[in-house]
Amino acid sequence: MALKIVKGSIDRMFDKNLQDLVRGIRNHKEDEAKYISTCIDEIKQELKQDNIAVKANAVCKLTYLQMLGYDVSWAAFNIVEVMSSSKFTYKRIGYLAASQCFHENTDVIMLTTNQIRKDLSSPNQYDTGVALTGLSCFVTPDLARDLANDIMTLMSHTKPYIRKKAVLIMYKVFLKYPESLRPAFPRLKEKLEDPDPGVQSAAVNVICELARRNPKNYLSLAPLFFKLMTSSTNNWVLIKIIKLFGALTPLEPRLGKKLIEPLTNLIHSTSAMSLLYECVNTVIAVLISLSSGMPNHSASIQLCVQKLRILIEDSDQNLKYLGLLAMSKILKTHPKSVQSHKDLILQCLDDKDESIRLRALDLLYGMVSKKNLMEIVKKLMIHVDKAEGTTYRDELLTKIIDICSQSNYQYITNFEWYISILVELTRLEGTRHGHLIASQMLDVAIRVKAIRVFAVAQMATLLDNAHLLTGNMQRNGICEVLYAAAWICGEFSEHLENPVQTLEAMLRPKVATLPGHIQAVYVQNAAKLFATILKNQEGNTDSTAAQETSQMMIDRLPLFVQSANLEVQERASCILQLVKYIQKLQQKDVEVAEEVSALFAGELNPVAPKAQKKVPVPEGLDLDAWINEPPSESESEDEQPKAIFTKEEPKHSRPRHTEVDEKELARRREARKQEQANNPFYIKASPSSQKVYQEAPGVEHIPVVQIDLSVPLKVPGLPMSDQYVKLEEERRQKERAEKKKKEKKKRKEKRSGRGKKHDSGPESEEDITPAHVVDIVTEEMPENALPSDDDDKDPNDPHKALDIDLDNLLETTARRPLADSEKLPVRSHRAAGAPKSPAEDGEAENATPQEPKKKSSKEKRDKKKDKERDRKRSKEEKKKKKHKREEKEEDLLGGQAEEAAVQSEETKEVEAQPSSTSAEVSDLDFWLSNAPVPSNTQEAATVAAAEADPAPEAPAGTAADSEPEEPKDTETEESKSSKHKKKKQKKEKEEKEKKKKKKHHHHHHHSDGGGEESVQNGTVEEEEPLPPMSNYCLLAENSYIKMVCDIQGNLQDGSQVVVSVIFENKSDSFLKSMEFNVLDSLNSKLQRPEGSGPHDGLTVPFQLPPGVSNEARFVFTVQSIVMPQKLKGTLTFIVKNEDSSTHEKLDFKLHFTCTSYLITTPCYSDAFAKLLESGDLKSSSVRLEGVNMPFHHLLARICFHHHFSVVERINSCASMYSRSIQGHHVCLLVKTSAQTVSIDAKCDEPTLLGNVLDEIKQTFSQC
Amino acid sequence: MIKAILIFNNHGKPRLSKFYEHYNEDTEQQIIRETFHLVSKRDENVCNFLEGGMLIGGSDYKLIYRHYATLYFVFCVDSSESELGILDLIQVFVETLDKCFENVCELDLIFHVDKVHNILAEMVMGGMVLETNMNEIITQVDAQNKMEKSEVIL
């Protein structure tokens, strides 16, 4: 037996490897799936082996199968096993597999943290490298948080191979754990000047990625990048930097000016096309940012355009494509310079490469003018005829429409021409864009009143020739235009020349083969048309004509009443009855036309696309508030155990409609059946009814004629757009001639006077007048619509979180030093255990008052800048006196020299610090404001040294002066980031809630297990529902208002606590202007918006009508969390009655329990066991007597009120875990017997533990 | 950033797929199919850039590809990458493969996809270009292979 096992495992050793698997798959082409499924079975067997080599081999094969699309997530744990092998060979296989199939929701990732940490610190650089590569693919927020510090250390590794990988992966870490950006940034910046080019390139890469999303935070790095750009020879680095500058210039035009010259030099000198292209691109970006009022850059534009022309003319299709791409960027700001290359671009339209043709089309869009629109569209129409593939033809079609309709039909001078273009486009067979043409027809006909007569005539012709359009219905999107045609003919039927003929055309039997929604429009508009005809005919003496029309309607409409489409059927039967009634009246010689046309009276106006969205929400209307009482909890009984853990959020269940009882339903059903039986037009459910109709004679016998579209189709009566081009030419010539005449006259007159001479050069844009007065009806918008353009911003962009102010980190003298909480979590609990020393606390205290408090104002900023400049100027003057020959100092290195000087100032005078930091901010200004004359470092160093001397005496006064203005620049940014933080917090909350839910799931899982056991024991306690619980406790209450609050730690920020307060208006009055204020303690502070004083209250962002409650959140920063604490606070508000309003206030005490610093964190039992074994935790215990509740209630209470999660539960014993916002682990072992509960607890912070236990005790003493 | 690197042959059979963003297996296959469809119908002498398909990316993303004999090398990148730069990178990648496999052909990629992954890992990491110097890449790959061999002997 034992021999068998050994033999088996040896067999396995020689089992299939990856190559065999691949070969096998190739040999089983017919039954590949079957073969692979047997392979997977084998792999499963292999994974069960203890031999790591076998496992690794299996995992390797799985990686291959994953590529073929097989889900291998079931083997995630085995992958982790292989990852943790000590052999590099297997480790690499494991990490590769993990990088291919792990993602954020892979739960075993949690188990990898320590393994990865071990590999990162491995003495073998390739272990580290493989771990970094793998991690870059599957890093999660948790991993990022736990490993950020380790990776940061690696950024200074001795091996460049590791350094560059560590630098690169930091970008992923930042994305997942934005808090790490500030602490890691100085080191990252350092790496920009790493001696190894690979590391340098990686750092550039990361900063470019960061800056691309939030460029403004990286402006201050511009001098450094500038230096790199002028010194580096690595094209990759250069390209990245130049691209980065392209992103920065829009924010700082002065930077652009500085860049133009070196970039132009590069353009002239480089031989690398990729670099040349990026330079051109950035120059274009610079020119765009400078476009306002910088006339003297035409040389640069010319250079760019000229270089791009060379690219476009190149035989290399790639260069051609990129040239066109870049050209389209210039087009936006300098259309004139591009327009001169129209020939080239039109030529590109003939290129065989579709990508290039599409690019050229894009360019055309921007090149049209009133003058050349017709000509360009004519060219495009020729291409439409020639185009072979439908995709490209469709693209052309949309482009034609885009070009013509752009900026509200700005370039169209003759709408008759445009309508005929649209009509011509309808001849494209098989296009997908029928609806686009249709909507254009509708839009033009509705908005351009003058064109309606013409449009209606054209549409009538279209309707008449509908059979040509609908040639073969199945794959024809073009019949959509009939929708527009029918609607236009109906709506504007008063313009129809021969309405009866059109009506006849709309009621042809063939119409019934059109799609339902079009038929519906046909029917409806036939009725409109009918109304118009009646009106016309009733004036005549001959009443038979009118009756004939009615008869025609009655004859034809039944066809539609039989339609399978409900809409058509409904409209048709309604109108049929109406016409029948009209006919009756007509026979009695009653005049009906007035009344019939009243049905369709009134004009339809176009409504702007976003009009609905922009209607402002009236004040006092809360769209999220319940109108009725939310449904009672009892509805979701089965979900109740979950509901205990989440806050009561009944959002998912909606108030039900009043229920109709069964009898009533049955009665109604019966009634409907009766009705149907009596209705002759109701088609009873017979599946063949539709078919029968389709095979009806009349349709079948019409021979289907295939239309050969290679010959352009000329429908009689339809105009050709070309004729308009000629006409237009003639018209314009005429106009020109007339103008000239007039001008001659004028000149004659003017010759006598001293009037200015007009230059009547070539025809300019304004000279072209539209053919007829065009009255473009603007789209309607609601009154007082909110102007908002940011409708389409994506709130989920991960890069938003990285919008973090970094300026003050850049130098050693940080204005906002890294707070303790911002430091990266250092290797978990071991070190963090010690309580903070008072000195540290003090430091932190000092740090906060430094936060800017002054209100920012532009004036101040400007003033300050002036002062700064003054100061510098005076310095410079001094310098000049001393070292006249060092005038060239004003370059970017000079800027640094300035910094150095400033720093030395600082060391001497502490008071001067604020001013010196502000000087730093303006270093950029300084650098930018000077001419770019590069000089070498040595010179700059001597300048710095020289400057360090005179500096201390001079700026003391100015420093004091500028001190109050100090905070401005960063202030705005900081306020932004704080706003951002709030958002994030919200998100976090949601996430937390989600997590909680998950956890409950988890918990459930465990308790389910427990449940089984308890069933074995003969009790059914698990079935017992948990009583509802809430963490909201009363904060304060008076006759007007009641405040309840819940306090939660902030998971992402170890120093923050979020207090959610629900304000409930108990009075009959309106409560407004609520202000929430708390007296800060040394340890805890209310976070106030930037610019408000330390004692200012926070305005509650809502008002409360009588009986309404609403929730507001307040963020507090806390330093130490080991002790509970109380904060006194006051709420002031105005009570407004109909006649009076009084100021009221309410005092309250906020109680920050230690529990509120705990965050529910899931923990696996093995990790839990390790934690307990580690011996770093201090223990403590407590006994609760007389607790009279089921054990699972008890656990639920601890989980809910004290933010714990159950790790494991066995019978009446459970282990629980939680973590504080500052990373303390709290472990509980809860046992119960009879009515006594004993809790043994361990935590790395004894004070915290003691307090938490006290609080738990209190919770249970209350119940 | 590079969002994905795909290698497939003239029939659309995947030879290597590396996604730097998570998709489930079905979506991955769909992306490969769609990309193959887009790329394969293009002529030989047209440009190597392609505005991305529906599944991957969106307007900011481009497909940049090269076609070598029986294989397509496709990189899906966003606008922060230089188009011509990526084309060069593909060239470097292929040349590196050529050096490592000695006259690389499709069969090498078929049977040694793990090795191709290892080479790629030295060039691109987490969607960002790590190294563009071929000699450096080969040095690192060789050193790691040597380590593997020494472990086998042990």
TrEMBL record, chain B:
Its main location: membrane. Keywords: Cytoplasmic vesicle, Golgi apparatus, Membrane, Protein transport, Transport. GO terms for cellular component: AP-3 adaptor complex; cytoplasmic vesicle membrane; Golgi apparatus. Residues 1-147 form the AP complex mu/sigma subunit domain. The keyword Transport applies. It is a peripheral membrane protein. GO terms for biological process: Golgi to vacuole transport; intracellular protein transport. Signal peptide: none annotated. It is found in: Cytoplasmic vesicle membrane; Golgi apparatus. This is AP complex subunit sigma. InterPro entries: AP_complex_ssu (IPR016635), AP_mu_sigma_su (IPR022775), APS3 (IPR027155), Clathrin_sm-chain_CS (IPR000804), Longin-like_dom_sf (IPR011012). Belongs to the adaptor complexes small subunit family. Part of the AP-3 complex, an adaptor-related complex which is not clathrin-associated. The complex is associated with the Golgi region as well as more peripheral structures. It facilitates the budding of vesicles from the Golgi membrane and may be directly involved in trafficking to lysosomes. In concert with the BLOC-1 complex, AP-3 is required to target cargos into vesicles assembled at cell bodies for delivery into neurites and nerve terminals. It comes from Neolamprologus brichardi.
